Amino acid sequence: MSSMKLASIDVGLKRIGVAICLSSDIVLPQTAILRKNRNQAASEVSAFLKEWEIEKLVVGLPLHAKSSAEMERRIKHFVSLLALTIPVAYQDEQSSSLEAKALTQGIFRHKKDGKIDSIAAKIILERYLVSASSKEVGSSNK
Q1: Range(s) of the domain holding residue 87
Q2: What pTM does this model have?
């Protein structure tokens, strides 16, 4: 697996979950970004990507949700506000928030502090890494 520094975001209306993968395939959820407005959230995400010297951004998209077209439009618009100079990959985020809740059941109370959002971002990035490594010929997975 390449040692490219990756980050993923799970764009929500109130919070943006964030996770990073700086080496191999260890994905770490980060503190979610609270979204007061689009421009503030975009500038915080941009600052985060610069701070970690991220080389590629993976963005969760709800490809199979009922309102997916509207959400996809919003998410892609948000990504356009980031004015990125790095490549962006979109990854299906189907049920990542539900999976995040299930994974953390009993570990911490589900407050509105963005932990779930960032664990969803972690799941999105892990899925991306799995699909990317399965495209690399002869790569072994777990």
Answers
A1: 6-135
A2: 0.84
